[in-house]
């Protein structure tokens, strides 16, 4: 079986895996902080204007949504790097 050239050295494979794991940790922590930021946005009391598509309540909900979207993107990037680390570890064993 032919091994990929990049992963022919076990030390190189471990360094790559460690780098990916570091990125996973960084993006996971970022996602946690972004979701905390989203959760701590104060929602004002709704009034009749909020149902017309305007007002401070809807603006606060939009802000929460933006922070949550950033957190979800960060979590997705962390999952991607976790998958890469797993693939590299499998290829290194071949």
User: Which percent band covers the strand fraction?
Assistant: under 5%
N- to C-terminal distance: 8 Å
Question: Based on helices, strands and strand pairing, what is the structural class?
Answer: mainly alpha
Task: Label the overall shape.
Answer: rod-shaped
What is the mean pLDDT?
A: 85
Q: Into how many domains do the coordinates divide?
A: 1
> How many H/I helices?
2
Extended strand count: 0
Q: Considering DSSP H and I runs of 4 or more, what fraction of the residues is helical? A: over 70%
Largest sheet: none
Poorly predicted runs: none
| Topology pattern, helix = H, strand = E | HH
Query: Any idea what the radius of gyration is?
Result: 21 Å
Write the layout of secondary structure elements.
Elements (H helix, E strand, L loop, with lengths): L9 H30 L16 H38 L1
């Amino acid at each position: 079986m032919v091994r990929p050239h990049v992963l022919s050295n076990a030390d190189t494979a471990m360094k790559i895996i460690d780098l990916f794991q570091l990125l996973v940790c960084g993006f996971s922590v970022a996602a946690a902080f972004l979701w905390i930021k989203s959760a701590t946005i104060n929602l004002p009391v709704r009034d009749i204007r909020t149902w017309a598509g305007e007002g401070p309540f809807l603006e606060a909900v939009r802000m929460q949504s933006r922070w949550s979207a950033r957190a979800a993107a960060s979590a997705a990037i962390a999952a991607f790097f976790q998958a890469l680390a797993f693939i590299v570890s499998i290829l290194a064993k071949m």
